[in-house]
Structures are given as C-alpha cells and as structure tokens.
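Onboarding guide, step 5: your first structure request.
Type a short instruction followed by the sequence, for example:

Predict the 3D structure of this protein.
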Amino acid sequence: MGGERLNAVDLDARGLVGDRWWAVVDEDGRFASGKSTRRFRRRDTVLRYAASTAPGGTVTLRRGDRTWAVDDPALAAALSADEGLPLVLREEGEVPHQDDGAVTVVGSATLAWIADRLGGAPDPRRLRANVVLATDEPFVEETWTGRTLALGTAALTLVEPAPRCRMVDLEVDGSPAPHRWLPGLTDLRDGCAAVYADVASPGRVAVGDRVEVAADG
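The system replies with structure tokens like these:
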C-alpha cells in the first residue's frame, strides 16, 4: 500500500516502529503484495489503498475519499470485494511481514540519476525507501556497505544493495509510474537500487538530521 511521509520516527531492532506491522492476508496465509513469493501473493488491488498513523497511534487506511480504522470489519469487506475473495488484516506474528531489509536507504543523487536515465520523477516511493539521504554522488550509499550510518540518535548498519522487482513499476496511491524502471535497472545496475540496512542502535530520526558514515574498520 501507499505509505506516509514522516517528519520524525523511532527506530527499534525491527526497523521503523509500526512499519509494515499490519498485513492483508488471504485464506492461505499469504500476504497481499505486488509480487508473488513464498510468503507474498500478488494482489494488485491492494495497491490502491494507503496507510497512515493517526494521532494516538491508530492506523488508518484510505482509498479515494473513504477512510477506515485498520481493525474496522468494513475495511476487510472492502478489500475482499475489490479482490473477489476473502481477505483479512492481521498484526505481525511469527512470520515477519517485512521482505529482506529492516530499513531501505537511498540517496537523493541515486533517485535523480534513475529519473534522468530512465524517465519519470525522482520519487522515493517507487523504491519503497524508508530513509532518503541528501547525496551528491549517485549510488554512493552502496559504497558504505558494512559500515555504520549514524543519524539522529539511531544508527544503521548498511547490509547490501537492494535488488528490485516489478514493484518499482507499479503505481501506488498516487505515485505514478509512466516510465518503466526495472528493465533499465536490470541492464545498468544489475537490478539494484538503494541499500538494505539493519538497526545497529535504536533511536529517533527526524528530517534534517545530520548523517555520519563511520570510517572503514
């Protein structure tokens, strides 16, 4: 689903607090997604919705001018009607809702490079990025793999470049995708853009925080 822009957020060992905590689940226990894997099943109708957190911590969902609380039975009914089969919403249990990375980090120069070479706008939503850094060199974040990134009162360990899938070419809640990025990323960047990271130290991150990359070793 579409996400929300945050001015500040807490990070814990799992990632951004509350990120992907709820999932839309089918009768087979698969999580609705824009792709199919062992855990996920392609349900493109779900991408028409967006999720956000209301004051007090209540998760709300929106489609057009309609909104629901995440635990509203009417929401599950609407999702089921859209998809044509029974769907429910569940909080995370033993099986994690996240894909491969706790946090996805991308530089602004990387987004600008992709938009310039492959078309469209440098919209981080197309890469499902959690953290966007102001950078001058495209893909510089990939050179920081294995190093620690201090931002706000938190710290991240950059793990590996993030391989992309068809999700980058799907429109999600008003994030248009008129130009296909996946073929170009496959040809030019081995299919990767942005970097997966683990949370090394929990803390709080806010827009405008200074970022420091630890020296090698």
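Each response can be followed by summary notes, for example: The two ends are 39 Å apart (CA to CA).
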